[in-house]
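Researcher: We're teaching a course module on how sequence relates to structure. For the next exercise, students receive a sequence and then see the predicted structure as tokens, so they can try to spot secondary structure elements on their own. Here is the exercise chain.
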Amino acid sequence: MSESLADVIEVAGNELRFLRRMIGDVGENVWERLLEWLIDDWFRLDVLGLENIPADGPAVLVANHSGAWGLDAFVLQKILVRSLRRSLHVLAAPFVFRIPVLGPHAAKMGAVPVDQRAAMRRLAEGGLVAVFPEGLSGLEKPFRERYRLQPFNPGFAVAALHTGAPIVPVTVIGAEESSPRIGEVPALAKFLDLPYFPLTSPFPLPAKWLITIGEPIAPPERPRGFGERAEAARRLCADVQSALQDMVERERERRDSLVR
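Model: And here is the predicted structure for the students to work with:
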């Protein structure tokens, strides 16, 4: 290969990388503006209980996961970062970071792949970590079971026990109605290399959203024995899920009254 041809290929490669970055930056800017419009004008989102999130120091925010697209994670991250002026690390499934525009945007906002050790490190550094312990099963619920919490992964309870960080329950009401899951399209999910592809409204419906932050739940003292720690984490996980389910039912009624 001649030197001049190699130079042309190198320049073309640099131009292509620059173009991809520029397109990515434009896409992220558009998504950021769209997210703000959805929050403020389309969903008319209200947030209650911000004072329950510690002004400093570690805390684990535990939220219900709902709505077919998982938009609640992006909304929660955006509204809390905007309101608290604190960095927030949302634990997200690895496939999220493969989604064009949304993945890079989530990473820039502080989202990290689901990893218990990574969560512990950030809590040990005094950070805020948000988790959706239902995982993907929270999004796969049929609409008739909306807001019925699915079994929790106890990883958040293990992290709280290990670090002593308080657990702050968070309810997100409105996502189920804005993106109701009617079914799924397995063939499309396989083609796009996604765990599932929902059959739902292509654009979020204008349902009223309400995010409520409950009072912190202090974890018990960390037991010394492995078996005792595992049992303590299991009980803590069950207690938090029960408390969050009660909050969800209460806040659904509060949101409905706001709609009227």
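Model: If you want an answer key for the exercise: The CA atoms of residues 60 and 167 lie 5 Å apart. Helices lie at 3-42, 71-84, 102-108, 116-124, 155-163, 175-178, 186-192, 226-259.
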